[in-house]
Structures are given as C-alpha cells and as structure tokens.
Design brief:
There is one protein chain. This protein is 46% helix and 21% strand. It is α/β, with parallel strands linked by helices.
C-alpha cells in the first residue's frame, strides 16, 4: 500500500498548528507532521529523508529569526508556503527563491489559500506531463520548473513525431503536453493539430511555447486546439499558475466524468437489489444483438444466450410475512446468482419477480450447466415451500427479429 503524501507544518503556535492541520486533513488524504522549532524541523527532515510534498513554515521561531527555518526547508528543494505576521526584508529576500510559492499572513481568513495551494500540489503528484522541445537546455529548465510544483512524472520528446509516438502508446496516460514551436520534422502547431485529431481538450491539455516575436503564433496555437500559450523566457510564477490551472481543469473534467457515470449507473440500478434494472437490460440486450449481427460471434458453437429466472410465490411471501421478508428474499436471491456468474455475464431485474442473466459468446452446454447450478443453489438455500424458481434458456437467432428475443417487448 502506497504511503500518504506528507506535509510539513512548522509553527510554535499550537492553535495555528491545530487549525491548519484539521483544515487540511478534513479535505485531503495526506499525513501532516508538525514542528515547533528549527531543531524539531531538522529532525523531521532527517527522519523522513526530506520526502515532503509541501512545507508550511513560520517565518520566525523561538530558536531562529529572519527566516532561518524557511531557508533550511527550501534547501531541501521542498515547495514552501511562508506563514508571517509582517512583511520585512527577510521575507522579501526569501521570496526570490523559486521554492517559495507564497507568503500568507497569520489570520484565519488567509488559511483558505493554504488549503487551495495544498490541493494543487497534492494533485500534481499524480500528474503526467510530456515536454516537447529540441533543446536539452529548455527541456531541463522546464523539468526543473515543474518539479518545484511537484510535477515529477515527466516524459520528453525532441520533436512532434517523437511526441506522437509516446502519446499513441498511452493516450490516457498523459495529462498535459508542453510543446515548443520551432522543432525539426513536425513543429508545435502541427503537433497540436495531430493530437486534437485523436484527443479532446477535456482529456489532455496542451500549452504552446515559443521565443519567437511573431504574435500570430499565439492564435495559431489556440486555433489548432492548444489550451494555453506562454512566451519564452517565461516568468516562473506565471508558468506555475498556468500549469496548476490546466492540471486542475483536467481533474475537474475527470471528476465530472466520474459523477456522470455514477448518475448513469444509479439510473440503471434496481434500488432494492442493486442489480441492473429493466432499462439497462433493454439497452444492453439490443446492443448485444446488433453486435452479434455485425460480428460473427458463432465460433465453436458459441452464441448469445439468456437465462430467465422467475421467482414464484413472492406474492404469497409478501402477503403472509410482509414486504420486508420478501425484500430480504430477493436480495439474497440476487447475491447467490451474482456470485455464480462469470465476468462477462450480468444479472438484470426486469419485473418484480422476473430476472434475466445475459450470457454473451457462450455455448449451450456451459449455459445449461450454469442454469442447473443456479437452480440447485437457490433450492438448497430456500427454506420456505411457498417459493420456487423456474428457469428457462433462450438463444438468439440473427435470422429472427430482435424483439422476438428480448423479454418483455
């Protein structure tokens, strides 16, 4: 099991430590380790081999002044937020370090900024970026800049053709492409066109880069499908902001897709038994039939089958013992049947006491064996004589109409 990302929190005020720790832990799956002095900070850094995703450090501590704790932490290359009650020369000097992400005043209203930055940096740990540039110097500069905001999963390519080879191997594995314009074989705009023929903006972000003074390049990149553009040499703060925003958009799109799938699944679930419902059955059986007609599934005597299971006597159970008992019986029935199905087989509840198992790409002997096992298991596990299970097997014949095969139409 992978360990949780660690956040180092350094402040001698226990109230602030508690408030920030609670706020972060309520929102993020991380481990927060705290220190109240420079000595404790040094001990934690040595103990954990400086493996912190982020540090939040007070500017002044009882055993050090003028930001010595901050200097020590950024010496390990850890992205750092400075906590301070005032702006002074020490703070201005520290802000010149690339590792310093932000300074935040010590008041409760500002704590939301800490959480916002923390979220971005923890998200970045799981981001994967492809950098495309024919200059090793530029590639190393961009990789170093990405590392400062916890983007360490970085692949590189020398031109657009090499980039497309990497993308084609794993189109879902890359969050973002950062590409220069002037490159041999395939330039940056041509690369953007090639990517957008395969992958939409919501799946993969593209940021164009160029040192050219040609202002038309910005519109060329954007019109080709890039999400953003930066001129070289870029300002580090602006670079980090653009990268963070694009990675955050990627996660939002991904979360949106996940929520849509949850809602879709919910719409197709039978709320009592948690098996798929009639709507899902009608959609899937017609899809299987059409696919069966397009592709020759009949190999080695295999075909598309349904096992229809009728629960007889459910009404008597409900009338005699109440609906709660009948509901429990159906839930147990579904659990028993689902445990016996192979990966490609699915159970659907199409009426109150009618269920169907769709078994695609199978043969009659295997389907008959499964049906017999289901019937035996159900009879062995049912104590009431009022309940019986009637099972029937049907096979799809492409020569007949689909509706003749679909149960309940």
């Amino acid at each position: 099991m992978a360990s949780l990302p660690k956040i180092l929190l350094v402040d001698d005020n226990q109230t602030i430590v508690y408030a920030i720790s609670k706020m972060i832990l309520d929102e993020l799956e991380v481990e927060v380790l705290s220190a109240t002095s420079l000595l404790e900070t040094k001990e934690l850094l040595e103990e954990h081999n400086s493996s912190f995703a982020l540090a939040i450090v007070d500017l002044n501590l009882p055993d050090c002044k003028d930001g010595d704790a901050v200097k020590h932490v950024i010496g390990y290359g850890i992205p750092t937020i400075i906590l301070t009650g005032m702006v002074n020369e020490s703070l201005k000097e520290l802000q010149e370090n690339d590792e310093v992400l932000q300074y935040i005043s010590k008041d409760e209203k500002s704590f939301s900024y800490i959480l916002n930055i923390s979220k971005k940096l923890i998200q970045n740990l799981n981001a994967s970026v492809l950098v495309v540039d024919d200059s090793d110097v530029q590639i190393n500069l961009i990789k170093m800049s990405l590392k400062l905001i916890n983007v360490t999963n970085v692949q590189t390519a020398k031109d657009g053709l090499e980039a497309m080879e990497i993308i084609n191997k794993d189109p879902d594995g890359i969050f973002m492409v950062i590409t220069d314009y002037e490159m041999p074989n395939m330039n940056g705009v041509e690369l953007v066109h090639a990517i957008r023929e395969k992958i939409n903006k919501d799946k993969l972000s593209i940021i164009g880069l160029s040192a050219s003074e040609n202002k038309k390049l910005v519109s060329e990149f954007i019109l080709a499908g890039a999400n953003d553009f930066l001129s070289k040499p870029f300002d580090m703060t602006e670079f980090h902001t653009r990268i963070n925003n694009n990675i955050e958009m990627h996660w939002l799109f991904k979360e949106n897709e996940k929520q849509k799938k949850v809602l879709q699944d919910y719409a197709f679930l039978d709320l009592l038994t948690k098996s798929y419902n009639r709507s899902k059955y009608l959609m899937m059986i017609k899809r299987y039939c059409k696919r069966f007609n397009k592709v020759n599934y009949v190999k080695d005597g295999k075909g598309l089958y349904q096992i229809q299971i009728s629960v007889k006597g459910l009404g008597d159970i409900n009338n005699s013992y109440g609906y709660a008992v009948g509901d429990t019986l159906l839930k147990r029935f579904v659990h028993i049947v689902q445990e016996m199905l192979e990966k490609q087989e699915t159970l659907y509840r199409i009426l109150s006491a009618e269920f169907v198992v769709i078994s695609p790409n199978n043969n009659f002997k295997s389907v008959k064996l499964l049906a017999d096992k289901i019937q035996k298991k159900l009879h062995d596990s049912t104590k009431s004589k009022k309940v019986d299970y009637v099972i029937a097997i049907t096979q799809y014949n492409p020569k007949n109409k689909i509706n003749n095969f679909v149960i309940g139409t």
